[in-house]
Prior knowledge:
The chain has three helices and 33 strands. By secondary structure, the protein is mainly beta.
Amino acid sequence: GATGLRTLQNTSRGANQISRLDAVLVGASETLRSKETTYVDCAQPTQYEQAILAADQSRQAGGDELLQSNAAGTPTVAVTAVDKPGCPGADPGRQRVTLTASSNGKTRTAVVTKIDPERRLQLPTAVIDTPVQQTSNGDTRAVFSLTATNSTSELGLTQFEWDCGPDAEVVAANPSPQTYPSASQQMICQFIADTVPSTVTVSLKVTDTIGQVDDTTRTLNIAARTTIRPPPVAVANASPTSINPGQTVSFNSTGSSQPAGTIVSYAWDFKDTESGSANSASTPTASHTFFRAGTYQVKLTVTDDEGLTASDTVAITVSTPVVPLPVARFDAPGTFFAPATVNFNGTASTANGGVPVSVYTWDFGDGTTGSGGTATHLYSSPGSYDVVLTVQDSGGRESSTTHRVVVKRIDPPSDFRAIGSRAKFPCIFFGCPGAHTGYMDFGWTKLTPGTGQQVSLEINIIQGAGVTICWDNATRTVAQSAGSGYQIYRWEEPNLDILNLGKTFCSGTTYEYRMRAKVTSAGSTTYGPWGPTLYWSV
């Protein structure tokens, strides 16, 4: 590095003056971070400044000192601030030191992270405390409360992600997975006990203030149930039970009960597959319109508060008309990101007896309607929309079918993280011969776009929290690869070059980064919100 440094020391004009000062800052930064410069608890700026100047004087014999004189003058370097949280008192072993280099009226500044090697930052540790069982052994349900107060981190923990596992009972009041901001906040996991003892596994992932994570699991023992609870009673009622095509039947669950507890859910299956998503309901009372002749064994399933179920059926007879009703058909559109332009095609609908389908009417589920065998509709806002196609033949007979369109907000992938990096110690030769590039690797689970939509992702590296001269704010757009699964992207930049400091991954520097997704459809592009700012140390 001495040859490149000497070249810069002899340069006195234009942009190379700035490069000369940057060379001084790089050399001073390396001196400050080196083991030879002792870490000083609650240090004052003059203590580190004296160490830097003393090290520079020791290099004079070889002509490699930073502060050489030339026609432009002699540069100076000073420590202007030491940010040391916790002082006076307990020094945390991590300080942010501000360096300033000046020459001939020009000034450059860098911020360097000085770390005590005896207290080097460690990864957080996830610990699940001893579970507290809220129920008694032998009960039909086992309920545990979990905390993570023994989890540790030098920087502090900001996020606790719990997962009760696939064996957990689904409970609206205590959803799983669940994320909490506090270690003492209780995670409730609930399981149905079997007739024999069993085990289940719960998991915890913790995240510290700079995005470092750790995870762990714990096995819970579920005792066999000894209390035998009777199942609930399901009663399905309907009126009328004999109808002509196109009539609507009303259903209710009057008489359904669970004397030992409560019924928590109702599920109707009308056995009318041609009706699409209208073929089911999840309320105690429901209604359904039958358009096709036949006998339908409509099924009601009730579930109680301990997961026990019971079912009942009621028969609905639909008479055969002289001319059968037409059959409405269109494919389920699927799921999209907002705003979504969705195409519908009902031309697969058919009429019977040689009578053609003459009228197509669309209800898009958002208060608007359309007509024609094919239709296009824009959904501007996220939501679930039940789209109804009603077809009519030339004799005035009609039938309908329903499918649901789900429109989601385009949020960034929840598991987007930096997963690796590489850097070298700074090089000050022009072009850095023989040096390899630095990089950061990012990974995430790919988003699933709707038909006709393309998803890409913007990664924004905001700045370095260490040597700030190593990075300018930069954003790259990454096309999402085809298919589902996990994607990895490598952001490469040249190794540190004195003439190109604004795009470099420097060893020992912490970088802030974030991501947002964008969706392109029908020639327009929509951006989702930026995800949280995360941190990665190269």
